[in-house]
Amino acid sequence: MTKAKVLVARSIFPETIARLQAHFEVESNQADDNWSSAQLIEKLQGKQGVFTTGSERIDGALLAACPELKICANMAVGYNNFDLDAMTARGVLGTNAPDVLTETTADFGFALLMATARRIAESEHFLRAGKWKKWSYDMFSGSDIHGSTLGIIGMGRIGQGIARRGALGFGMKVIYHNRSRLDAALEAECKASYVGKEELLKTADHVVLVVPYTPASHHTIGAAELALMKPTATLVNIARGGIVDDAALAAALRERRIAAAGLDVFEGEPQVHPELLTVPNVVLTPHIASATVPTRRAMADLAVDNLIGFLVDGKPVTPLNPAVLAGR
Ligand code: DGY
Hints:
Helix content is 38%, strand content 14%. The protein has helices at residues 14-21, 37-44, 60-65, 84-89, 102-117, 120-128, 157-170, 184-190, 197-203, 223-228, 246-254, 274-278, 293-311, 323-326; strands spanning 5-8, 25-27, 49-52, 71-74, 93-95, 149-153, 173-177, 192-194, 206-209, 234-237, 260-263, 282-284. The protein has a 7-stranded parallel β-sheet, sandwiched between helices. Strands 2-1-3-4-5 form a 5-stranded parallel β-sheet. Helix 5 (102-117) packs across helix 7.
């Protein structure tokens, strides 16, 4: 039987390539070259599957130019790089990598919250710059985590993980806003209460964003929402660039309309709004919330499982548009 052909669009663990090679003819990008969409289309000619990492845009134009493509397997839980409607219309399956990164990403969300509220990055830069000449009582005073109110926007699995950490580990009062309310048992387990978005923004001491990016969630936090937040509040975005209006946030931080922000994702990343690079009260990290070695391996493995599951066995593990399977 001839092997299906698979493209790996970005550099990845050698073991991941080896696993794929056991089943497919593989072309990979271990040099991690930045392919334009025209180059990606060229590389995809004759390929039935592609391993993507979340940064490659799969849209109608690409699909029209790659008629043999059958599956795009994202090594990410987010899949806003996929035009899922266009994929479904063309009978192309999309898969993502949920669950395996939940706890790691929730850990990071909490770490970023603590670094932001307790001004860890800002004070470290001060120390490294040789500016620490004497201690003073108000040096880098931040805000408390324990006993404060944590507002979570987006209460999927990662949001729930952050809620548990806040409520059980730090005695926080947890409020959340989500498209749909959790069932009572899950709310009780997370010790979280459902509130409207406006109430959350007005009452939370710390706001953490964990919503998926869609046209409807674009600029969930803009100037109007920032104006509702407490001047002492912290905002953390581990969701996606575009959930926050970065220009409006930079202005609010500069004018101290909120106390601080922690951002792992940015509009137009890897570009970062230049104003964000100059304000001191923001902690910036390069989209690394799921970046631990075991979790990144598990994410890569799940993408491979999906490619094998679909192209070899006809049973992908985490399909995003199962309608495609029904139509086969
Ligand atoms: C995800 O899985 O969506 C993370 O943002 C890593 O890309």
